[in-house]
């Protein structure tokens, strides 16, 4: 039985493996693809999410700057 299946499979010397540098590059590319796919999973508009995150970060920076200046906090008063 082993003789029949051994003729169908390539031998170890027939299989070409990429050199170390090529293999590392391929692994990095695959990891980057997985990262991008994971970020986009469940999100219909990934650009919108990025814009919202950027806007949120800008608002936090503005708030920190105002706090450093010692005032001008936004308060709503019901007059």
TrEMBL record:
Bias (Basic and acidic residues) ranges: 20-66
Keyword Lipoprotein applies: yes
Name of a matching Pfam family: SVIP
Disordered, as annotated region: 1-79
Alphabetical list of InterPro entries matching this protein: SVIP (IPR031632), SVIP_metazoa (IPR055366)
Keywords: Lipoprotein, Myristate, Palmitate
Transmembrane segments: none
Top-level taxon in the UniProt lineage: Eukaryota
GO annotation terms (biological process): negative regulation of ERAD pathway; negative regulation of retrograde protein transport, ER to cytosol; negative regulation of VCP-NPL4-UFD1 AAA ATPase complex assembly; positive regulation of autophagy
Cellular component GO terms held in the UniProt record: endoplasmic reticulum membrane
Name the UniProt record assigns to this protein: Small VCP/p97-interacting protein
């Amino acid at each position: 039985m082993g003789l029949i299946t051994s003729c169908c499979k390539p031998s170890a010397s027939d299989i070409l493996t990429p050199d170390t540098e090529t293999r590392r590059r391929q692994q990095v590319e695959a990891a980057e693809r997985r990262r991008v796919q994971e970020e986009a999973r469940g999100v219909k508009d990934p650009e919108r999410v990025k814009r919202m995150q950027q806007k949120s970060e800008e608002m936090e920076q503005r708030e920190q700057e105002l706090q450093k200046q010692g005032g001008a906090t936004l308060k709503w008063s019901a007059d």
